């Protein structure tokens, strides 16, 4: 008999309460000013706990992620709604006002991830072909979820998990790799922010542009109006999120069967997958409506609500993971380390070429690797008024993460097939 059938709690209503309680506890303690919690969260990222506390409950059979319908609900409804809300607030004119170098460094970081993953897999796979498989599964499927995370964020990672079909066992491995390697790089950038002038000198960059940007962002912060959020505003947010999610489902239900019927070979590129079209349409609609008055929904907390949906999705992913399988494939760490080194190398070459200040290197990288969670933190390490720059670029990451992660996943698949 399957031990999972004897899980202590099987009622999804109870499990929902448990997951939301875990998220509330993590966020409450992560924002605590008490010295013990501050020290704890300097070592353990809060996002990791959102995955691993539910995973512990699943591992010890307190809940059963495989039998629960919560992940299906979260991935089919909350994920596309999250993508809509996170991309809806992109302010393209504001990004343009940051200057060309900020955008160039962001996309240099994106290219670094897209090129670095397949190249790292090729290097390690050429030396040790066994790395191409995790147990009996193709490892590139798990690595593709890192691409989604490192270009966009958790929503894009979850999208790549569904599109390429990595098992929960493999995903348990790559989540640890993703978080540990990513936060190691974040720590290095935070250290580098304290030696900003020396690094700018090495890059040949003029920091006057950053000083001007600091003054500009300070003026914007001082003049920012506080928008009231009430029942009307929440209804508008939910209407936009789930209305566009409905359109995305409607479009996916038409497009995926059409490809299946007329171009069955396109299954190799996930074009016959309804979920693929669901996330593509949701992301695209969010981008399109960001050019309209709908962008003002960000003043009501569009990205905040999108993040709430995202964290619940993270918890439902975690509740399907078996921690007894974690860290059984250390070669994935080797691939990720080489991957991040390539990302860094491309960033530094481009920065040296265009003489971009280190601030743009750091924030451009974190807007990809760390997303909205850490890009503002790294930006604020340079100056507290620069935190919104990190937010703007991180939101851009959510927009390109779906497309970039998908293309990187196909490249990883090609490299894997080439080496086998």
Kindly list the characteristics that best describe this protein.
420 residues, mainly alpha, two-stranded antiparallel ribbon, 18 helices, 2 strands, 74% helix, 1% strand
Question: Could you explain the architecture of this structure?
Answer:
The protein is mostly helical. It has one domain (91-300, 326-419). Helices cover 74% and strands 1% of the residues. The chain has 18 helices and 2 strands. It has helices spanning 12-30, 35-43, 46-59, 70-88, 92-97, 100-127, 140-151, 154-164, 168-193, 196-203, 208-223, 231-262, 274-289, 302-318, 331-354, 358-369, 375-382, 387-419, and strands spanning 133-134, 137-138. Strands 1-2 form a two-stranded antiparallel ribbon. The longest helix is centred in the C-terminal third of the chain and has 33 residues, at 387-419. The two termini are 37 Å apart. 48% of the residues are buried. The model has no long low-confidence stretch (mean pLDDT 85).
Short structural summary:
This protein has 18 helices and 2 strands. It has helices spanning 12-30, 35-43, 46-59, 70-88, 92-97, 100-127, 140-151, 154-164, 168-193, 196-203, 208-223, 231-262, 274-289, 302-318, 331-354, 358-369, 375-382, 387-419, and strands at 133-134, 137-138. α4 (70-88) packs across α12.
Helix content: over 70%
Shape from CA axes? globular
Count of individual beta strands? 2
> Biggest sheet, open or closed, and with what strands and sense?
2 strands, antiparallel
H/E element order: HHHHHHEEHHHHHHHHHHHH
Domain count: 1
N- and C-termini, Cα separation = 37 Å
Strand content: under 5%
Q: Uncertain regions: pLDDT < 50 for 5+ in a row?
A: none
The value of Rg in angstroms is 21 Å
From the helix content, strand content and strand pairing, which structural class follows? mainly alpha
Mean pLDDT score = 85
Order of strands across the biggest sheet?
1-2
Count of helical stretches: 18
């Amino acid at each position: 008999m399957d031990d999972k059938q004897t899980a202590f709690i099987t009622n999804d209503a109870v499990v929902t309460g448990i997951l939301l309680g875990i998220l509330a506890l993590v966020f409450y303690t992560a924002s605590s000013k008490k010295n013990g919690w501050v020290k704890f969260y300097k070592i353990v990222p809060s996002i990791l706990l959102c995955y691993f506390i539910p995973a512990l409950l699943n591992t010890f059979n307190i809940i059963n992620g495989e039998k629960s319908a919560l992940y299906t609900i979260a991935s089919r409804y909350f994920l596309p709604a999250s993508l809509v809300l996170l991309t809806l607030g992109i302010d393209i004119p504001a990004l343009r006002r940051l200057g060309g170098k900020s955008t160039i460094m962001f996309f240099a970081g994106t290219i670094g991830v897209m090129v670095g993953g397949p190249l790292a897999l090729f290097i390690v796979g050429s030396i040790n072909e066994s790395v191409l498989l995790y147990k009996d599964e193709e490892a590139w499927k798990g690595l593709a979820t890192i691409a989604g995370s490192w270009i966009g964020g958790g929503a894009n990672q979850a999208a790549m998990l569904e599109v390429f079909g990595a098992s929960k066992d493999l995903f348990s491995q790559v989540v640890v790799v993703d978080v540990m390697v990513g936060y190691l790089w974040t720590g290095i950038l935070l250290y580098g922010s304290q030696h900003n002038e020396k690094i700018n000198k090495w890059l040949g960059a003029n920091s006057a542009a950053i000083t001007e940007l600091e003054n500009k962002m300070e003026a914007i912060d001082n003049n920012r109006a506080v928008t009231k959020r009430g029942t009307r505003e929440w209804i508008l947010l939910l209407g936009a999120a789930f209305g566009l999610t409905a359109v995305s489902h409607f479009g996916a239900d038409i497009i995926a069967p059409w490809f299946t019927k007329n171009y069955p070979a396109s299954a190799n590129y996930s074009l016959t997958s309804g979920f693929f079209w669901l996330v593509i349409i949701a992301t695209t609609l969010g981008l399109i409506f960001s050019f309209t008055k709908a962008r003002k929904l960000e003043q009501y907390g569009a990205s905040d609500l999108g993040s709430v949906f995202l964290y619940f999705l993270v918890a439902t992913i975690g509740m399907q993971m078996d921690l007894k399988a974690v860290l059984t494939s250390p070669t994935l760490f080797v691939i990720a380390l080489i991957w991040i080194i390539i990302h860094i190398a491309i960033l530094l070459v481009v920065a040296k070429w265009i003489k971009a200040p280190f601030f743009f290197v750091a924030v451009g990288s974190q807007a990809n690797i760390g997303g909205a969670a850490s890009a503002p933190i790294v930006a604020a390490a340079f100056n507290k008024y620069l935190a919104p720059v990190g937010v703007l670029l991180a939101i851009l990451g959510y927009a390109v993460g779906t497309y970039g992660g998908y293309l990187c996943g196909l490249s990883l698949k090609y490299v894997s097939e080439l080496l086998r």
